[in-house]
Amino acid sequence: MFYGQICLENHYQYRICEKIRRCEECFKIVPTNRLHTCGEVFCKICNKQNPSGHLCYIQQYTKAPRVDDFLFIFYDLETTQEVSRQEVLPRNDKEGIVTSFLHEPNLCVLNQRCFSCIKEQQLYYCQTCGFRQKIFCDNEVIPTLMNHVLQIRKNFKHVFVIAHNGGGFDHQFVLNYILTSTDFTPDLIMRGTKLISMTVGNVKFLDSLNYFNMALSKLPKAFGFAELSKGYFPHLFNCSANKNYVGPIPALEFYNPDNLKDEKARNELLKWHSEMVAQNYVFDFQNEITQYCVSDVDILTQSCLKFREMLIEETGVCPFMEAVTIASACNIVYRRNFLKPNTIGIIPKGGYRMRNNQSTLAIKWLVLEEKSRNINIQHAAKGEEARVGGVKVDGYSPDTKQIFEFEGCYYHGCSQCFTHQRDIPLKEEPTETLNSRYEATMVKNARLKSLGFEVIVMWECEFKRQLAENAELRDYAENHPFVLHEPLDPRDSFYGGRTGNCCEYYKIKGNEKIKYVDVCSLYPWVCKYGKFPVGHPKVFVGKECPALTNTSGLVKCKVLPPTDLLHPVLPLKMNNRLMFLLCRQCGENLNGEECVHSEDERALSGTWVVEEVVKAVEMGYKLIEVYEVWAYDTVQFKKDAEEGLFTAMMNKFIKVKQESSGWPQACQSQTERDRYIEQFFEREDILLEFSKIVDNPGLRSLAKLILNSFWGKFGQRENQPKTSIINEPSDFFNLMSCPSKHINTVLPVNENTLIVNWEYREEAYDSLTTVNVVVAAFVTAQARMKLYSYLEVLQERCLYYDTDSCIYVSRPGESDIPTGDFIGDMTDELEKDGAGSYITEFVSGGPKNYSYKLWSTRDQTFKTVCKVKGISLTYEASRIINFDTIKDMVLNIDEPIYVMSKQIRRTQEHEVITLPCKKKYQLNSLKRKFLPDYSSVPFGYKKIKT
Fold this sequence. Notes:
Layout: H1 5-13, E1 20-22, E2 29-31, E3 40-43, E4 48-51, E5 70-88, E6 97-114, E7 125-126, E8 130-131, E9 133-136, H2 141-152, E10 158-163, H3 170-181, E11 187-191, E12 194-200, E13 203-207, H4 219-223, E14 246-248, H5 263-278, E15 282-284, H6 285-315, H7 319-322, H8 326-337, H9 360-373, E16 386-388, E17 391-393, E18 395-397, E19 402-407, H10 434-450, E20 454-459, H11 460-469, H12 471-478, H13 481-484, E21 499-501, E22 505-507, E23 513-519, H14 522-529, E24 531-541, E25 553-560, E26 572-574, E27 577-579, H15 584-589, H16 599-602, E28 604-609, H17 610-618, E29 622-636, H18 647-660, H19 670-684, H20 697-709, E30 722-726, H21 729-737, E31 741-750, E32 753-760, H22 773-794, E33 798-802, E34 805-810, E35 826-828, E36 838-846, E37 849-856, E38 861-868, H23 875-878, H24 883-892, E39 897-906, E40 912-921, E41 929-930, E42 936-937
Parallel strand pairs: 5-10, 10-13, 19-20
Antiparallel strand pairs: 1-2, 3-4, 5-6, 6-9, 6-40, 7-8, 11-12, 12-13, 14-15, 16-17, 18-19, 21-33, 22-36, 23-34, 23-35, 24-29, 25-28, 25-29, 26-27, 30-32, 31-32, 33-34, 36-37, 37-38, 39-40, 41-42
């Protein structure tokens, strides 16, 4: 029996039925050579047959690391900026057209290390990979570099090409060359125009900045290379007219000293330059540029290899071969060394309700059918879908023997919506095509009719048209309880850190001092000591939801905040900000007046970690309605009783960090050192090894990187946009007409090449096997609650807070925030300026926008510090934006200040240019309602009258 004309034709022409078959009971298409049981599927995550609809777990990483037949190439480029051109800036920029300067490489230095010579320090020539350093200095630097890479890759199984900030700078020249001069179609992972990785055959281009996010000049100190340091070079002197220059050292302006952020670094440059001038130093351009670039590549090479060696030794993970960022490397470290089986669940796409893949649109149709027919229909929003005749159906009315099938156009192969590419294998299910899905749908419906049921069918596209044309139907469906409170989306519970200013200006009075404290290793502390969900949750809806005080997990609910809480508890995303407020309506309107709104207008609806809501209720919030709860079993570290989810990994690297920091200054005698080890064990339950307590900057940097970069991978956004390079018209047509993909943008590079940005349709993308956003939400929620414990004590004395830190007023007779030396303790941020240093005057223009004047006990002088997000405070910019100008703006409510600078940017064609940039500085205190005395209260605050 054949189920359609296509099946018959395929049977005769391609003998397709020798490869796949359709089960006569459940209509599932399966490989002919695979054992099939109805109701079971082969799970690619679990790598075995499992019941359909089973729940998966993040798997241990058992794949052995690659340790042979590899080559690393580390390189750096120097560029000229001689070619000028006109750039049209975005419409909202008043400058309109500006002159930019194109970067063109004129020097490349590379070091290469293969599996044979990677441990050799002084080797000049390797029998396997050849000369270990190469210098290209002609006008064809990138073609020469690529020719070398493409030739040498034939000798190795894996080649890794690494540059520092390569994704933002060096690799851009390579990608532009590939786009304009070759027919390669590299695999790209991008964020905007920045490259995360680029793969061409067996060659992978990586950015070391994605592994250690610090300037190249800081790497020698971080990894303990005292003999290496980044020198000085006059980049603005690098032009064709000077390529053979030999003479006095170029003028200071060619070194661009006013573009340095660090005043100390600027003073060191000025001192060095004056010394060179005094010595009548002879500057040989070719020698200087080569030495400078060689030095940079040596720093990069030694730092990367040291980092790799230490990570392999400590964890068995090679960061460059197995990952493209430090976060993904840390995730592999955890899964290879610490993850226990069946511990962290993978959340099904769409969550746990509607687990039969019924969309909100399908529920809208079913509730409308119930209303119009005046019947009761069993469907997913009421629980499980019904099973009729051995198969699941979208809706079923046992009283009328009617079956309701809502045919999602993609899932069921709608011939009206998808007219092309109907016979290509689908990405998420390679044994299926759109035609096979359509035929299976027709066969299923025909069989149900043959069993005596009436089958009512609605296609997604037709229902959307009906809703668009009938406002009455649309309003009823959208306001139905099953639809109004859509299933809990766990990503809605994932908020960032708490950041904001509570005061715009404060100057100490009398014996007051302003102190600045921050939590030592906040996120590692949360990961070690915090509570975390394991397994999969029990899902409760509406009245069946349990009391939150006895529950841990996520809750979607409606709450009414109190009116007089100075520091609200619950976060809410509003006005493109993370807000903490007492009235929704006041927050939406940024209402600076007294709140006059009703309770319903004040109420907040959202999804939060249960523990945060419990704390909110403790602080006076009222729980109005609970829509849905995901109740998890949890684990939490308890000394001598229970190990936390991440405790073992945190302990491993806390131990490494502490030992590689060396002995504290106060521990000089044997007795003091023994006591130090004993105290650390008592506090952290970690036994330090006496012989390993040695100053080791490299190992300490490695441990810090892992401790702080570990947890973020769990919150990674799924279905990230992809970028494809298209050289063939047929490839472009296939991509445009592919039913599982949605095209975002198409950028022509030239007449032969397109850059296409696309993403999978919502129905087609796979859940990431390393992600559990609930775990990430627990991390940030517990971090916010840690910070809140200090805000609760400080009340109006808090001037500013930022994720893990507080700036507050200290007064005689009032409790200070206690400080300590262990993770989770508050530490004195000003201690680096001398014990007892304190702030005398503080000013803030908003979150991540503040400045202060402090008294340094070490230097016995006043200093100012300024922090402004979005503006690079170079020496030149700091003369415009500083403590005095911010103070003047706050006190006098002045107009915005503009800062002119030169900025390196990437074009959509992956060229690199320098162009003038105008940044606007303005006050941004919009998260709270500020009062005439520069203090503030949250939106919706009303002091209770007594």
